[in-house]
TrEMBL record, chain A:
Keywords: ATP-binding, Ligase, Nucleotide-binding, Ubl conjugation pathway. SMART domains: E2_bind. This is NEDD8-activating enzyme E1 catalytic subunit. The keyword Amino-acid biosynthesis does not apply. Its EC number is 6.2.1.64. SUPFAM superfamilies: Activating enzymes of the ubiquitin-like proteins (SSF69572).
Automatic annotation (TrEMBL), chain B:
This is NEDD8-activating enzyme E1 regulatory subunit. One of its GO terms (molecular function) is NEDD8 activating enzyme activity. Residues 7-492 form the THIF-type NAD/FAD binding fold domain. It comes from Chrysophaeum taylorii. Keywords: Ubl conjugation pathway. GO terms for cellular component: cytoplasm.
Length: 459, 503
């Protein structure tokens, strides 16, 4: 007997799509439809189903390969990046000679040449630069992004596309499932987001902690680790020496400068361990990445796409995590909706504020809160409070920033907040409850010393 | 681009040592279908030194449909040759060759063959070939990774006679601070701190690393009570003593959070009993030699590295150096007790990572076939009470797949959805699980029909998951870093659930 004895000679996809099963989508805990085997479902997969792959990096390359070999006939991919040498240990659609080229185009070209019947359409650019009409054309979206920002935005876009009528019922034809994957070293997670039906990406924002930073006082006064010296060179020395220019983290000259300064400081303090590699890691916040983890998570995501498109099996409900460093540990569970999720719940949040707080302080506190906003714009039912854009409106509303809340709004007033972390159609409602017990100023010492050791466990 | 090293992102995981091991390794892949080639792809990309692909088949329609390493234009050519060509394109650092021969034939005529490889991956092997390959690898103590995809389910099985890991790199670093059992310099620093504390200003107090504070309080506690805190009350009392030193100081708060290190930082070899028991191994490896040396040394050598502590730079650096010096002294003493053929670097390496040393041995494939142990399976089933989820428990699919393999072995074909085949399969499933599972699933017939539906096909995305887990285990094994599974990982893509078990 040979290595494939007993295996079918047919296309493996046919085995699944042409035969009935007791385990169709309808039998699972997250049913998305009823499976009916036959040519029709295969026809849908190969000719009608339009899927968008967001990101053509470590996950994206794998997902493109997986989807095209799982029979998807109409694949689109969007990515803004160009190919870097450090991609080549896992982004297998790229070669050394492709360095500098746009990832989306090279990846699409490779798949189209390699896989018979594949049709991949590339888009070079930012996810945020496409509008609702662009996203509306897809049956589903797979995201393999390395940053939280773009995933939050994409999630908010897809949630806002799901139309809810006055009775609160969702129009199923407007629901675009989002299958999201992420990895870090030997760890990863894959999840299915069915807008309005399951939890969304924003519901789980807390499980993605913000980037690690070091307290300023440690960096400036009592450095102990090589990381402290590198951060000093980056945060304190660079702006002093080059006030007019930001660091280009892709420039070997800039990075060498940071490394030299960090090394000098480390030597002055007798700290060992500042290397060029560590400097890159700290300044660029580099996350380790390997081919295998990306392939695992992408494979899970692509399988979910296939099952959602064809309903030929049950679906991931809703979250699978993978940890590969101590044996293999996985956990599959339903990530519950966050009752006051700013994106998918539609709920109005209550916010206790001191009426003597200025509008600028309120904006600052919204940015630092668990909402993690970037540049919030605020409006009342009948008027604008502050708009970050366009310039003219910003100028017109700027005087409000120094006014106190009591001058601008009434107790229990509802305000709406929009922010570039979300797509334009997403606005959060905040109900401001005046309370004199709340602090009057916000954040004198904000990002300074909330890390390390911390007051969180003070006895 | 600020780096010219294409391996930068993975070096941050396994370092130059792991990379050196990987690039020195010659890996054998048996089975060049979708699962096998994807596994090898995930070794070629990170830079395995060399590979050999063995496969006796020719590229057919189903390969082109589900494999990335077989194109339409390759139909009719040997799969091994095509896979080798296309895989080599991925990374110019890697050497590779192919052998067009059926694995069973090869291993029958050249039973020594497996012995020349660092690791063997068997992908999608039929039950007979698997037995032959499994035996050959077991005999020669070559690590074997078995990868298998069947429709929406699949598994990775490791067969390791004895595998040593020095750097198991646990998620949470096990710092070795010795605050309850201090070495001389730490003891002196603690005493100085205890003596001066009252006279120090708040500023001066805030400069002391928490390890010194803990050592100081631990010494006083022991002097007064004769022992370190043992009972919950003692521990609460100890914590209280720390808080008394000034709860508003960050280093004191850190000391409070790290109190437990006082009663868990023993240097006694007893706490390493399990790992040191391996020193009796018949196979006297360098690791065993170092472990024997440490047993003679009489206590755990100090590791060296310490975590960041809120403190003033000079005191922290001085403390860091004190630990490093103590670690060097211990390693030097151990060195004297280890045969000279073991290099100094290796002795230091083991001393530094002693707490993370792991030795893994799995059952052989033959043992598993002969007397499957379904205890893990029973436990997994006993845990769940949701019938929908229960039917998808990965271990049930393991049992079902095994019955289908027995069918294949007996009938020389995969079961079909024909009621007669299904009846046969269900009967075998019942026989396999009788008395071993807490209950008999009433869905056995559904499981049987589903496996028949899968036709043992390598669905690409599922094969890709299985292959990647296999490759990740292979990298861990080759680098002798991180902990491998023991011994089966099973993935059920029906609802994306997975489990690791020993059967
Ligand atoms: Zn949500």
């Amino acid at each position: 007997m040979s290595a494939v004895a007993g295996a079918t000679k047919a296309n493996p996809i046919d085995c699944l799509l042409l035969t009935p099963t007791a385990f169709g989508s309808e039998s699972g805990t997250l049913p998305v439809g009823e499976f009916s085997p036959g040519d029709e479902v295969k026809e849908f997969l190969t000719n009608e189903c339009k899927v968008l792959v967001v990101g053509a990096g470590g996950l994206g390359c794998e997902v493109l390969k997986d989807l095209s070999l799982m029979g998807f006939g109409d694949i689109h991919v969007i990515d803004m990046d160009t190919i870097d040498v450090s991609n080549l240990n896992r982004q297998f659609l790229f070669r050394a000679s492709d360095v500098g080229q746009p990832k989306a185009s090279v990846a699409a070209k490779f798949i189209n040449a390699r896989v018979a019947g594949a049709k991949v359409m590339p888009y070079v650019g930012r996810v945020q630069d496409r509008d609702a009409d662009f996203y509306r054309q897809f049956n589903m979206v797979v995201s393999g992004l390395d940053n939280i920002e773009a995933r939050r935005w994409l999630n908010s876009m897809l949630v806002s596309l799901a139309e809810v009528d006055d009775d609160g019922d969702v129009d199923p034809s407007t629901v675009i499932p989002m299958i999201d994957g992420g990895t870090e070293g030997f760890k990863g997670q894959a999840r299915v987001i069915v807008p309005r039906f399951t939890s969304c990406f924003e519901c789980s924002l807390d499980s993605f902690p913000p980037q690690r930073t070091y307290p300023l006082c440690t960096i400036a006064e009592t450095p102990r680790l090589p990381e402290h010296c590198i951060s000093y060179a980056q945060i304190i020395l660079w702006p002093k020496s080059f006030p007019d220019r930001k660091i280009d983290t892709d420039s070997p000259e800039d990075m060498q400068w940071i490394f030299d300064q960090a090394k000098e400081r480390a030597e002055a303090y007798n700290i060992s361990g500042v290397t060029y590699m560590k400097t890159l890691g700290v300044v660029k916040n580099i996350i380790p990445a390997v081919a295998s983890t990306n392939a695992i998570i992408s494979g899970v995501c692509a399988t979910e796409c296939f099952k959602i498109a064809t309903m030929c099996s049950q679906n991931l409900d809703t979250y699978m995590m993978y940890m590969g460093s101590e044996g293999v540990y996985t956990h599959t569970f339903r990530y519950e909706k966050k009752p006051d999720c700013p994106v998918c719940s539609g709920a109005t949040r209550d916010l206790a504020v001191n009426p003597n707080l200025t509008l600028a302080d309120l904006i600052k506190s919204l940015k630092a809160s668990d909402l993690r906003l970037k540049a919030p714009s605020l409006a009342k039912a009948d008027s604008t409070l502050y708009m970050q854009k366009p310039k003219a409106l910003e100028l017109a509303t700027r005087p409000n920033l120094t006014k106190t809340l009591s001058e601008l709004v009434d107790d229990d007033d509802e305000i709406t907040v929009t922010d570039p972390v979300f797509s334009g159609d997403v606005a959060l409602s905040l109900k401001l409850n005046f309370s004199l017990d709340q602090p009057t100023v916000f954040g004198d010492d904000d990002d300074d010393d909330d890390e390390v050791g911390g007051k969180k466990n003070a006895p | 681009m600020a780096t010219k090293n294409k391996y930068d992102r993975q070096l941050r995981l396994w370092g130059a040592e792991g990379q050196a091991a990987l690039s020195a390794a010659h890996v054998l892949l048996i089975g060049a279908g979708p699962t096998g080639t994807e596994a090898l792809k995930n070794l070629v990309l990170p830079g395995v030194g060399e590979f050999t692909v063995v496969d006796g088949e020719r590229v057919g329609e189903s390969d082109v449909a589900s494999s990335f390493f077989a194109r339409e234009c390759d139909i009719g050519r040997p799969r091994a040759v095509v896979a080798c060509e296309l895989l080599l394109e991925l990374n110019p650092d890697v050497r590779g060759q192919s052998r067009v021969v059926s694995p069973e034939e090869l291993f029958r005529s050249e039973p020594e063959y497996a012995g020349s490889f660092a690791l063997v991956i068997g992908a999608q092997l039929d039950p007979l070939s698997l037995q032959t390959v499994g035996e050959a690898c077991w005999k020669r103590s070559v690590p074997l990774v078995v990868a298998r995809t069947c429709g929406l389910v699949g598994s990775v099985r490791l067969q390791l006679r004895r595998h040593e890991v020095v750097e198991s790199k646990p998620e949470n670093t096990t710092w070795d601070l010795r605050v309850g059992d201090p070495f001389q310099t730490l003891e002196e620093l603690g005493r100085e701190c205890a003596g001066m504390w009252e006279s120090w200003s708040s500023f001066e107090r805030g400069r002391v690393p928490y390890a010194v504070i803990l050592a100081a309080v631990a010494e006083r506690f022991r002097r007064e009570r004769g022992v370190l805190p043992e009972t919950a009350r003692d521990k609460a009392d100890f914590r209280h003593r720390i808080t008394q030193l000034g709860g508003d100081l960050e280093n004191v708060q850190e000391a409070c959070e790290n109190c437990y290190r006082v009663w868990t930082s023993s240097s006694s070899l007893e706490s390493l009993e399990v790992r040191l028991s391996h020193q009796d191994a018949s196979d006297v490896t360098p690791l065993v030699k170092v472990l024997r040396g440490i047993a003679k040394f009489g206590r755990i050598p100090i590791a060296g590295p310490i975590p960041d502590m809120h403190a003033d730079t000079s005191q922290f650096v001085a403390l860091q150096r004190a630990y490093a010096r103590a670690a060097n002294a211990d390693a030097k003493a151990v060195r004297e007790l280890v045969p000279s053929e073991v290099p100094d670097d290796y002795v230091n390496y083991v001393c530094r990572h002693l707490r993370d040393v792991r030795i893994v041995a799995t059952r052989s494939l033959a043992d598993e076939l002969e007397s499957p142990d379904l205890e893990d399976a029973a436990d997994a089933l006993a845990e769940s009470d949701d019938p929908t989820k229960l039917a998808q428990t990965p271990v049930l699919w393991y049992v079902a797949l095994r019955a289908a393999d027995r069918f294949l072995l007996k009938r020389k074909r995969w079961p079909s959805t024909d009621p007669l085949d299904v009846k046969d399969l269900v009967a075998d499933l019942q026989a396999l699980s009788a008395g071993k599972l807490p209950w008999t699933p009433d869905t056995w017939d559904h499981h049987a029909i589903e496996l028949a539906r899968f036709q043992n096909a390598e669905l690409h995305a599922v094969a890709s998951v299985i292959a990647a887990v296999a490759a990740q285990e292979a990298v861990k094994l080759i680098a002798h870093m991180y902990l491998p599974i023991n011994h089966t990982f099973f993935f059920n893509a029906i609802n994306a659930s997975a489990a690791t078990f020993e059967i």
